[in-house]
Amino acid sequence: MTHPFPGGRDEEPVRPVSMREHVDTTVTFPAARPDALDTLLRHCFALERAGEAPRAPARLRLEQAVGPALARRLVSSLTAGSRR
Q: Is the pTM of this model over 0.85?
């Protein structure tokens, strides 16, 4: 007869863990420095793009995709809200 669940899931008793143990583990877990994470992320992106040609500016890519007139209207309408 087959079991409805994978082996080991329901057969072995699991030690109950109190909420305090979870909280203590979370509080004492060393957090990474945000600047270190940012640096690591920048380095990963740089490695991914190392063999590629540099990207054209976003405005030029938008103009190529939708044309200069529509690109100008889109950019001006999006930036008009930030001037208010």
A: no
Amino acid at 50: A
Would you call 75 exposed, middle or buried from its count of C-beta atoms within 10 A (0-12, 13-18, 19+)?
middle
Domain spans in the chain, listed from the N-terminal domain onward: 58-84
Dist. CA 71–CA 60, nearest whole Å: 9
Q: How many other C-beta atoms are found inside a 10 Å radius of the C-beta of residue 84?
A: 4
Q: Is 8 left (phi over 0), alpha (psi -120 to 50) or beta?
A: left
Res 51 pLDDT > 60: yes
Which amino acid, one-letter code, is at 49? R
